[in-house]
Structures are given as C-alpha cells and as structure tokens.
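Sequence in, structure out.
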Amino acid sequence: MAKKETKKTKNNNVHEVIIKIEGKEWKDACDKAFSKKQKNVKIDGFRKGKAPRNIYEKKYGKDYLLDAADLVLQDAYAKAMEESDLVPVVQPGVDLNSIDEKYVEFKFKIITKPEVKVKKYKGLNIKPAKVKVTDEEINHELGHLLEKYTELATKEKGKVEKGNIAIIDFEGFKDGEAFEGGKGENYSLEIGSNTFIPGFEDQVIGMKVGEEKDINVTFPEDYGAKDLAGKPVVFKVKVNEIKEKIQRELDEDFFEDLAMEGVNSEETLKEEIKKSIEAQKEMDNENKYVDEILEKVSKNVEVDIPEEMVNEEITRLMGRFEEQMKMQGISLDLYYQFTKTTEEDLKNQLEKEAYSNVLYRLMLEEIMNLEKIEVSSEDAEKEAEELAKKYQMKKEEFLAQFGGLDMIQYDLEMRKTVELLKELNK
C-alpha cells in the first residue's frame, strides 16, 4: 500500500512528492531483503543462513531495511509520477525521509517545465549577412589543393632544407641514459612542421644522407612526462634519406588526378573553388543568422530556469565532448592532463552554452505553442525514412538511436518554429 502527499515549493515548477510504502508491500520487500542478507551470514550456534531475524538484528542491526528500500524505489517513483500527474523535465531527485520495519517514506523532487513568457518575437528587423568570395580566398584554397596533391621525390644530392622530409633514425639520452619513448627508426620528419621539441628540426637542417649528429635540446617545462620536463637531452640522429616536395602544375595530368566533373582548366577549377567557398559561407552565415535571431528574441523572454535543467544539459554537452575526443584518440583524463584543467573547469566552460541551449529550447517551445505549430505523424514518418536512408540505416534502428518518432516530430516542429522566426523578423 502506498500513501502520497504532494506539495509545491516556492517555485511553481518545483514539486515535492512524498510516497509512503507500507503494509504487505513493505513487509514483502523487508522479508526478501532479509532473506538475501541472511544467506551469507554465519552466527555462532546456527547453520550459515539459518539464524532467526531477531538474532541477526542483535548482531547486525536492521541493515537490510536499506536494501528493502532499494527494492521498492522504482515502484515508489512510478506511483509518484502516476498519482501526481506531473511531467518532469529532468531526472527527479529522491531522498529517504524515514524508514523502519513498518514503512519507508521517500521524498521525490520533481521539476516540471517552468513558466515562459515571450514578450516580443516579431519585427526585430534582423537580416542575414551577404556572402562575398574574394580572389585572395580562392587563391588561398587553390594553394591548399596544390599542397594536397604535392608529390615527394628523393633528393639525390644536397642537404636537408626547410620544407624537406628527412627520413631519420634517432635515439634520445638524458644524463647518458636512453629514455623511454625517445627512439625511432626511418621516421618521416617534415622540417618546419614543429613536430619535434623546439630546436630539434633546426639542427637537422644542413645534414646530408648518411650523416650522423648529436642534437642537443631541452624539453619544455610543461612537457607531459614529468621526468623529462625542462630537462636537457641529447638525440643521436642519422639521416637515411631526404625527400623534397614537387609542386604540381595546373596541367592536364593534374586535372585528371582531380577527377572533378567539368574541371579541365585553371578557370573552371577556380569557379568550382568559388562555389565551394560560397556554400560553406552560406552555411556559416545561416548558423550565425539563426543564432543572432535566437539571442535577440531571448532578451525578451522571462523565465526562471532551474539549475537542474542547466546541469543536465552540461552533462549532455560533456558526453558529446568526450565522444569528440575519443574520435581523436584522446580520453578525457588525457585531455585534462594536456590542457592542465579539471572536470570542474570543463563544466564551468560549458555552463554558458548549456544555459543558452535550455533557454532557447524553452523559448522556441513557447513560440511553437503561441503560433500553433504542429507536425503530423505522417510527416515525421516520412522524415524518419529519409534520414534512415541518408545514414544507410534501417528505419527502426535509426529511430531507436534518435529517440523515437516523437523526437523526430519534435525536431521538425522546432525547425519549423525557427523558419517562422526568420520570416517574422526580416
């Protein structure tokens, strides 16, 4: 049997729901929890797992009550949701109010959507920036493209110069002893890339193939390995081969290698580059334009956002950041080490973005309601099918990852609301 008491706090969207579990439901949970505890206990005078409850309690107390509380917690939460008829916007908090052999009482803190007032969201006269592509930008991108298709040729004579690729063997020594991670064979080092310790690449310049040389450098003070940070070391280096970059010409062979449809001359290549830059700028401008609209409209919004909503968004952003780091082969611990920061620093760094995300979401939902924007389930189904096809997934698999058809529908409604804001504020 469950008894419920609901009360609002001073904030109308923060509710306390008290659920009491007692009677047979609580007795059964206590019996089950005690039985599990009892199985592994040996008390003098009784076989293992056979001591009566009163004897067990004299030795260990009523510690099984907390396990019994865990057994009924989910049911208590379900009752709190059902009987209070509240829709939480974040995972509810829970406290154990009181507990004994007769009953357990939980207090759930349920945060519902706060009241949102959007005073003005029309006629703000916001226009997107115009896109312009300069010759300098086109030539800069052309240079990158030529660099990408640069060929390497073995340098038969001469010395290592800046921009060359030196194929080297090296081994590092500190105080005459080789140190871990300081050895490499046939390593391709681009001179001028600043890949190695400051000063190393400069001293390779001028070496010939087959030449051996001791290179003296000092590790930076902030180097990751503490035993090497700020320490002078010697690298024994041998140059095995020198390669130089051969700049490509805008000739027929180059255009064949590009294999871009309709591109067969410098003029047509520059036109394609211009289109590509324009498309990227259009997309960047669109994102900035939407951000500007949302920011301006948000200044006309009244809402008291609970810190729990912001904290949950921070957690989501941290999860996304961690996934991005993993894609680069970096764990969060390694990131903290490299940047000399902590988890708390990252949370503080993401707090402003998290607050804005929550504010914009609440604001758009309110405008959506005011403008009666709706998306049919048929349109959501169609969108799901198109997105699943785009990502080469089965529709059911895509929906499971995206959060279901309701999330597709919600996402479409939010996008329609943003498009309406653009129209209303030109």
